[in-house]
Amino acid sequence: MDKRKRELIIGQLDSKLAAFKPAAAIIRPERGWVNAIRTSLNMPLNALGIKLNTTPQGVKNLELREQSGSITLNALKEVAECLDMKLVYALVPKDESLGKMIEQRAYEMAKKIVMRTSASMRLEDQENTKERLSKSIIEKAEDIKDELPKYLWL
Asked: What is the sign of the dihedral through the CA atoms of 22, 24, 26 and 32?
């Protein structure tokens, strides 16, 4: 994939994910969303069980699976539909964006590469200045960002 196309795809995806950024700060209720919504609606286990075609114990087990993190997306989607709701799902970068994540990773990788080369040069008594090393790291990071090699994520 060429550089411009990749940048366009990353930019479009960053735009979509930006809408979810505020949601990333929301803390899941201790007992999970299903339990929080069901109890706030004053809906008994058996009422949700009827909608899900399961027993009250089945609903309780579903709530426990959500609480422990072992529930499936399909199960959550089914519950959402029964509650006349919609499941919203996304992966949100911890930093500002995918672009920023790529920049940081490229910089880290470039620093390792340049410093490894610098160590070899130092042994040969050809050490570079700090300014030259800094410039080399930035240049190498730009090359890595442009190339976006698969080894960047290893």
From this structure: positive
